[in-house]
Specification:
This protein has about 425 residues and is an alpha+beta fold. It has 9 helices and 4 strands; from the N terminus they run αααββααααββαα.
Amino acid sequence: MKRLSIIAAVATFAAWAGLSLAQPLPNSLPGLPPDDMVRQALQSHPDTLAAASEVRQETANRDRLEAGEYEWNLSVGGQQRRTKPRGAADENFKEWNVALERPLRLPGKAATDAEIGAGGIARAETAYGDAVHETKRDLLKSWFAWLKESAVAGQWAAQAELIERQARMIGRRLQLGDAARRESVQAEAALAQAQAQAIQAAARQQAARETLRRRYPALVLGEPADIGEPPMPTGSDEEWLAAVAEHSHELALARQQTRLAELAATRQRQERTPDPSIGLAFSSERGGEEQVVGAFIKIPLAGGARRAAEQGAQAAADATRYREAALARQIALTTATAVHSARSAHAAWQASRTAAAQLQQAADMEARAYQLGEGSLNEWLTALRLANEAQLASRSNQLEALEQIYRLQLDAHRLWEFGDE
């Protein structure tokens, strides 16, 4: 009966470590938090709120550009006139003048300013989508960091509990004279090692949980959800590359920045032709004896500074175009690497799952041998340690494969699409 308890403990450990983990949370994919909590966490995140404020800022900037900085200018002046006619007394006159003038925006400049304003709003809206997307990435990373540490902590807790049962049983047998002192020492040493690992794993789990809770207070963190089997990424590399490039906020931002730089160069080119100013003037002279009404036009004479500004704006537009091309290459490289990593992670999980099952079978066989008196406690502990390490690797690879495919789907906008980007 004492030997049978070992097999029962092994069976309990095998049942815990070999769970299929196929039950998803409600309204979510396997291994992910519920969609409504994710949506709330995204909407309340400071980065997305800041990006939304920048959209409002660009809206106001568009209104400013459309209105233009062409305002009426009022000037008022006064003067004292003194005349000294020959043979007569000096004469003093109070005089004043007033003028109203306004620069005129030449045809074409207003349309360009309106395009720049609209482009600024579009860029801010894309930046908002990018902020939401980056927040999703961070949430996914933080969530799986917690899941991974939770899996390790649970595994070591179960391992320590299993060895503790065995150590208590050997202790009772030692008191009854039915076990060697050596077996008790081996069991106590194995228990101390497992407990140390369990304590460290629990600390890492708590740190990951605290990080996730602090970053995303809207998430309700209970016990980690059951984890489903990671799917193999389907589709060719070209399909994934096209999907990611189509929805890439970074690439869209680069394109919009290029367009805005081109518009800025166009606007600077238009400034080579200065805007004229028109105005009306009225003056009262010789104490009101003379009143003068006039109209005037002012035309600045363009110099070399305007030409240099145009050349600088065109160079800036060329630079943004080159950066856009470089970014497109980088995104293609990153996506190809992500597709390869997702497929490799899936293959690694399958291999590690097979290894874990085989090593667990070996541990079961050692337990039976120990029961029948054909094996030693040390052999069973060694087999159990190897099985535990294999289970840890299998769970880690399982979660890594899930995270990799979800990250790929996220970048292709096939995950957590709430209409907010």
